[in-house]
Design brief:
Elements (H helix, E strand, L loop, with lengths): L3 E3 L5 E2 L10 E2 L3 E3 L13 E5 L2 E5 L16 E3 L3 H6 L21 E4 L4 E7 L6 E8 L16 E3 L10 H6 L1 E6 L1 E6 L8 E7 L5 E11 L6 E11 L10 E3 L1 E2 L4 H5 L17 E5 L20 H8 L1
Parallel strand pairs: 10-16, 11-16
Antiparallel strand pairs: 1-4, 2-3, 5-6, 7-8, 7-13, 9-10, 12-15, 13-14, 14-19, 15-16, 15-18, 16-17
Amino acid sequence: MPKIAFTFAHHICRMTSLGRVAYQARPSVTLNPARATEWGSSFQMLVRCPLLVLALGPGGSPSPTRQSMCGRIIQASPPDQLALKIVSGLEDRDNRVPTGTNSPRRYNGAPSQQHWVIRRNPQTGACSLDLLQWGLLPNWCKDPKALRPINAMAETVATKPYFREAYQRRRCIVPVDGFFEWMAVKGSKVKQPYAIAMKDRSPFGIAGVWENWQDPATKEWIRTFAVVTTNSNELVSRIHNRMPVILAPEDFERWLGTELDPRDLMAPFPSEPMTMWPVSTRVNSPRNDDPSLVEAVDLTATLEETA
């Protein structure tokens, strides 16, 4: 497979098709798709930046691809309310990051950013609400520039080396108000984004796995996570074939517990409690992060403008 070299002044946050692999490229960095063979034969790479969109299929040839799932989340509720509605008994004194911390609300939370994550201490059993970086970096990894997947597929999270240990020992819950997904529109070059949430707009918990990685040079500890995805339910399948694993409240304890393989919890969440609505294409850029991003738009007018 060919190597692809990118040289430009922009930081690139690369998202994947179906969340298989994620790269972060920096100026004058050479990426080698051959490294992705450990992920299996179905390899696709998508590099995104303000000036460039490039998709590579098997063999390094250009191919169409769909935007990553799940690649954007909404964490707009205050952290204490967001977490307390998800895990009962979570108190401010349990948090490494106190609930009074001046953390920005995320209306368009993107990979590489810090987001709220709920974890359980295996020794004490106490839950905590912490800020972790989106993009998993395994504890055994030696290179801080290594692959940082933002998603782990439910079908392979228990077996893929990159996720296996985290799945068995370090599962977490990502509390969100909602997430975004994009639908291809016939005759338009721009995909239409949709916000997806619960009908009553209550926060809900997405399944995740996390890692604690120490930089060998600085000795600094970096905590990272990835979102687990599964097949879409009837609602989300209208626009995409994947969705995050949404946990029912009665399953929080099991997911955060010591069970090695709670795979039955990773089924698609029922459609009935959920809703989705079209939103502005401003959400396409992670630079935009304000309440207007979750407001419904006139889909007809939007499609006419972007056609």
